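[step 3/7] inverse_fold.run input=structure_tokens len=333
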């Protein structure tokens, strides 16, 4: 009877050794510790907690202050009361994070998005204390403010990274969008700042216009093949040109998608937890299919093929992309 040879699908990312390149994003924000254990049992390499926004704590502070008493009754003491209540909110949240990190053996990665330097530093310290093994800073700043130059926005990224590095020893990953004047150069410069990983790309919230009620709404479009195509292009362009690892976090659903981004040069891939909740065999199926592909191509380790299709400046694939663009232009006539 034929026995399949065991494939080594382990990778190194953020200075951590992961048993799988598949990282699960807890986008639904479940607090069920058993759910995280099931993800570990299914072979997840690591878990990223749902991104916690600074405004969430601020909302809880204002909501609870209104419940306790009318805010004008506090007078000058309002800020103290708000801060006190906010501390309780954070304590409850991070106590649950501690339960999760205690329950699983795989790395748990915190994720935050803030608007003030104090919050970045404060929350990172809480994640570190709660047992997280790394932190992902979601810094998808959109170029909406016409008073800001591209240099202003890039400077903010570097200032936040500098502040967080001084405040914590946790490995840092930056989750970013692709709205930059020279994206490749900026990603490379970020990798020189001492961070350990960059997650590409944080998807911009799609907007729609309700013509009946005359208001802006969030469109409920999901990730599409175009997201993956753009991701593959940029991973292939950036692979080998940064001092930190790249993690693909857009449009990945199948084992074939995973193989593609690894061939392009990504160290890890990120998939939403919702896919795992819908099918308890989904995650193990991804690993099985990945191992089967590796065996069929005679690869025993991911390192043997990761980045094989990455682009170099002199790679003819760069010229091929231009030729294909010209061909599409003529075919559309």
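[step 3/7] decode complete -> sequence:
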């Amino acid at each position: 009877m034929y026995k399949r040879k065991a494939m080594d699908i382990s990778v190194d990312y953020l200075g951590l050794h992961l048993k799988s390149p598949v990282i699960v994003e807890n986008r639904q924000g479940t607090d069920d510790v058993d759910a995280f254990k099931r993800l570990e049992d299914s072979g997840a390499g690591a878990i990223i907690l749902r991104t916690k926004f600074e405004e969430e704590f601020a909302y809880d502070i204002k909501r609870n202050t209104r419940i306790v008493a009318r805010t004008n009754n506090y007078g000058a003491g309002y800020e103290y009361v708000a801060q006190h209540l906010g501390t309780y909110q954070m304590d409850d949240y991070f106590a649950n994070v501690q339960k999760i990190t205690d329950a699983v053996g795989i790395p748990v990665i915190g994720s935050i998005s803030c608007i003030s330097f104090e919050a970045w530093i404060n929350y990172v310290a809480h994640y570190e204390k709660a047992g997280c093994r790394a932190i992902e800073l979601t810094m998808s700043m959109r170029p909406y403010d016409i008073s800001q130059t591209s240099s202003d926005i890039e400077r903010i990224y570097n200032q936040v990274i500098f502040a967080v590095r001084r405040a914590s020893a946790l490995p840092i990953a930056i989750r970013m969008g692709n709205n930059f004047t020279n994206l490749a150069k900026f990603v490379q410069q970020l990798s020189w700042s001492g961070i350990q990983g960059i997650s590409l790309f944080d998807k911009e919230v799609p907007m729609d216009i309700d013509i009946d009620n005359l208001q802006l709404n969030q469109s409920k479009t999901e990730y599409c093949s175009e997201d993956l195509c753009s991701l593959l292009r940029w991973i292939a362009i950036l692979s080998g040109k940064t001092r930190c690892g790249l993690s693909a976090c857009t449009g990945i659903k199948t084992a074939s998608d995973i193989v593609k981004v690894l061939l392009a040069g990504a160290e890890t891939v990120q998939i939403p937890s919702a896919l795992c909740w819908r099918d308890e065999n989904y995650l193990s199926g991804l690993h099985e299919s990945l191992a089967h592909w590796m065996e069929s191509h005679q690869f025993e380790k991911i390192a043997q093929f990761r980045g094989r299709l990455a682009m170099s400046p002199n790679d003819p694939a760069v010229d091929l992309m231009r030729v294909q663009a010209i061909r599409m232009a003529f075919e559309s006539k």
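[step 4/7] annotate
Residues 135 and 266 are 18 Å apart (CA to CA).
The radius of gyration is 22 Å.
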